[in-house]
Task: structure prediction
Amino acid sequence: MSTRPEDENETGVVLRERVEKKVKRPRMYSVVIHNDDYTPMDFVVRLLETVFHRNETEATAIMLHIHNRGQGVAGIYTHEIAETKVAQVHMLARKNDHPLMASMEPEEDASENE
Result:
């Protein structure tokens, strides 16, 4: 390995500038549950408890938000996990003969707004 004279200090020790790599946080996605007129409220609460690990109080509050506003965020995850959660919602809903729908939406990146 050859060294350039400008890389050496008076003692003959080679100095190099350390380049720090910035690790970018992965983009996050909201898993959104959509209201329908057929899926029972208690099914949605159980689904929020099992798939999204919400306690009964949180699950009930989210379910009521979905019911009253037409949709609501069940959780925020990385892309792969959000995809899996959406698939789990659809699988459990179909298995129980409910038309419940879920989707995922990208979260706004705070650094994009600066």
Q: What stands out?
A: Helices lie at 41-51, 56-69, 79-95. The first strand starts at residue 28 and ends at 34.
